[in-house]
Amino acid sequence: MSLDKVKESVLMEAKARAEQKVREASREAERLLAAGREENERVSAEALREANLRLDRETARERERIQHENRLQVLAAKNRVIEEVFRKAKERLASLSDAEYTKLVDTWLSALPPEAGGEVHVNPADHAKFAAKLADFNQGRSGPGVFTAVIADPKIPSGAVVDGADYHIDCTVERRLDELRETAVGDLAKKLFGA
Question: Is the pTM of this model over 0.90?
């Protein structure tokens, strides 16, 4: 065999091996690319799933926040309506005639326990009309339950306050409205809002 033929044979064998190595490398590269694409798709799908979960949680939190704000606004509006009802009630009480007003306060004083007597403090603007009714206020009362005097007191906005030896009974319009608000606000809300 000639040297040229040996060279040619070695070159052909080397070329065949090189081509085989290129094919193997090409297959390995394709396998690695496919595995990389699969891993990339898996990572992308996981990232997308996590992003969607975060978005769902954020959306749920935002929805809850908005619903909470709406509930607070509705509650505030209901409270404004209830306050308006009591404001109008106070205006209505303030517009009573003297006879109606003294009769109302007489009703409150009559409802006090029979032993709850003492000084009846009233606003100076109401002093004359209540002083004239002192005998009427005492009708049916006796002993320690008698109202002894009507005192003009600028601290009393309306209605009356009974001061006894060891007690202070607030029968002012403001206090009566506060008591009514405390006891009747639930029923009032049901009537106004059906809640």
Answer: no
